[in-house]
Amino acid sequence: PFMQERAANLVKRVSAAADLPAKIRDMYREAVRRDPPPTELDTALTYLDTGTPAQFAQALLAPHEVIVGH
């Protein structure tokens, strides 16, 4: 629930962005304090063809160790 709440709050904070690429850039700026390089932006757009913004935000907020299992 904690990560889901954080992800939902992140999605709310970027909801005013003009379009999906802008929302993704804003999520990156909030979560990891940088803009996504073009390859990461493309990956995020592809992911969001089937995933939700909240799911993407949760993945973006997850520590690297959780994602890769270290």
**Sheet/helix structural class:** mainly alpha
Mean pLDDT across all amino acids: 88
The N- to C-terminal Cα distance equals: 22 Å
Strand content: under 5%
- Poorly predicted regions are none
Count of helix runs: 5
Helix percent reads: over 70%
Broad shape: globular
* N-to-C order of helices and strands: HHHHH
- How many strands? 0
Salient structural properties:
single chain; 70 residues; mainly alpha; 0% strand
How would you describe this protein?
The protein has 70 residues and is mainly alpha-helical. α1 (2-13) crosses α4 (53-61). The chain has helices spanning 2-13, 20-32, 38-47, 53-61, 64-68. The protein contains 5 helices and no strands. It starts with a helix and ends with a helix. The radius of gyration is 11 Å and the shape is globular.
Short characterization:
This protein is an all-alpha fold. 70% of the residues lie in helices and 0% in strands.
Secondary structure layout:
Blueprint: H1 2-13, H2 20-32, H3 38-47, H4 53-61, H5 64-68
Helix pairs in contact: 1-4
